[in-house]
Design brief:
By secondary structure, the protein is of the alpha+beta class. It has one domain (about 30-125). Helix content is about 25%, strand content about 25%. The protein has helices at about 1-20, 65-75, 120-125, and strands at about 50-55, 60, 80-85, 90-95, 100, 115. It has a 4-stranded antiparallel sheet with strand order 2-1-3-4. A two-stranded antiparallel sheet has the order 5-6. Strand 1 and strand 2 (about 60) form a beta hairpin. The longest helix is centred in the first third of the chain and has 18 residues, at about 1-20.
Length: about 130
């Protein structure tokens, strides 16, 4: 009897600890997914933004401004937001650490001119 209880106990904690791991951004292929806000295909990965809620729902956006509008309109509580580094599309930056610049020099899919950079030195040439 105790062995059966021990197996259930072990199974329960295995499931709990497995689901407590660090959540990471998903890598997409060009055109694989549509923006959760405007429904445009995500084709320019320099502006790809991802949001995950506390319940685990993941949303993808084709531009930073779509992510911002979506969270405000739907009153979404984001657990984590990642933005693609404008200069390296293979690198995701957390919203807290990213340097977000709005510039006329940046042509984002929705026309807002927002882009995320890893540091101020990378962002400097794009500032107006």
């Amino acid at each position: 009897m105790w062995f059966k209880n021990f197996k259930l106990f072990l199974l329960f904690f295995t499931v709990v600890f497995y689901n407590c791991g660090e959540v990471k951004p998903e890598t997409l292929s060009v055109g694989e997914m549509k923006c959760s806000h405007c429904s445009m295909s995500i084709v320019d990965m320099r502006f790809h933004t991802q949001l995950i809620t506390y319940k685990g729902k993941r949303y993808h956006f084709d531009a930073i401004e779509c992510s911002d509008q979506f969270t405000k309109q739907n009153q979404i509580k984001a657990k984590q937001i990642w933005m693609t580094n404008y200069l390296n599309t293979n690198e995701f930056l957390s919203k807290e650490k990213a340097i977000v610049v709005q510039s006329k020099k940046i042509r984002s899919p929705m026309g807002g001119g927002f882009a995320a950079f890893k540091n101020h030195e990378d962002a400097f040439p794009f500032q107006n």
